[in-house]
Amino acid sequence: MQSSKTPSFEDEKVSQHDDAAKAQAYVGHVTSKAYVGDENAKAQALSADAASVTDEELKRVLRKIDIVLMPLMSVAVLLQFLDKTSLNYANLLGIKSDTNLRGQEYSWLGSFFYVGYLAATPIHGFFLQKANLSLYAGLNIILWGIVLGAHAACNNYSQLVAVRFFLGFFEASLTPAFILLTGRFYRPQEQVTRTSIWFANNGWAQILGGGICYGLLVQKPGKLETWREMFLILGGIAIAFGLVCIAFMPSSPATIRFLNERERQVAVYRIRANKAGIHDTKWKWSQMWEAIKDVRLYLFFLGVCTANIANGGVSNFGSQIIKQFGYDSKTTALLGMAPGLMEVVAIYFGAYLSYATRSRVIPGTLMYLIAVAGGAMMIGIPAQHKAWRMFAYTIVFAYPCASPYFYSFLGSSVSGTTKRIVFNVLMQLGYSTGNMIGPQTYQSKDAPDYVPAKITLIAMFAAAAACLAAISGMHYVWNRKNAAMLDSPDIGDDAEDLTDLTDKERKNFRYPY
Length: 513
Prior knowledge:
CATH class: Mainly Alpha
Protein name: MFS general substrate transporter
Organism: Testicularia cyperi
Number of strands: 0
GO molecular function, one term: transmembrane transporter activity
Family: Belongs to the major facilitator superfamily. Allantoate permease family.
Shape: globular
Domain Major facilitator superfamily (MFS) profile: 69-513
């Protein structure tokens, strides 16, 4: 029997610097097959070859990356949100009566999606370090499309539980994959705007979903129930788009196919200043322990979890909340588009405010406070003023604006592949746990006003704002301590820029806040 040796922390520290040596050996052979699976080494070789990069080249390469990556990520996020909230629209289309749902069963269907999400999160965390990101994301989109289409064959609660679980299981891959992709291709301030661009498609999905639901409500009844038609249509679209992602979505600036050799050099040169490397498939225990000892790990979890306790309720009970104001099903479907528009406007405005103030905490906490005000108004406005109650519900949807700041914090303030994976996994656990709890705050005994759920919503958004502010405050203090408060990061020749070191191991790391 052969004995195995567990790598020591010292071995890992030595291996962290091996990429630089490999890069020097590979310079001049950057298209060699020797780079397969070794993206950090290829990136360093490309960067070493990138001489005399001009501003025009930087802009041109950024534009090319945006033209391909942003539309693909945006459509994927739109489909993800539309597909996971399809149960909300199916509720208006009669799924409750057709499948004989009783009592809290509808609430549990909302929660079981996130049980699957929760179960899948550590599994996806493992594969996201080992696999090609774009291929992995595309395969999961295809799989959730198949599961979504299978909703149309369900006739009872048990069958719906199964498909909701697996839909959550496969959808859980997308957000962590896109957080990692955004960190690979963009500089810190660019990460805020690009994350906002693809995340805003949650709002566009609500607008589109309301329109689809209204169209199905006004059409003449056919042989197949309209909610079954909806699931078949959305499932087919997801399958087709998953194939598109596999074919065209890039995975790394060091291997991007639609750029020539010089442009790949520039793409890698651009992100050297992130001081985060690109990708390392080796699991490093020292980075895992550093992540566990980093207090921000738990603030990320709490912030995302509390925000999504509130989100889990309004995303699954949105149509019921609006209908409770006194509107019929068709009007409810149309009014369901208003929160989506509010979300889009809030995210775009928040991205502008972040760019103008060079801050993430200012727009993030502001939007959480607007959501708190909306929740309070929903409780306090009398029932006869249904238009004002609808306005209050709509402004609650300023809260998604803060999510891109949590995501971009992860992408630009946590360095080291293993450490970032640990943060990513725990943040997604917070997301799924919050969304799993959220629907249970809407108890049938509290209908139609659901006042306890609205009080919970207010408290959770306030807690999320406090977590975001705490992370930003820590970053500010650490920057002062490290004397790293610079208006823009140095893009000079730094041997550590593209190696797989953590933010704590980098002497000059600058934390955004």
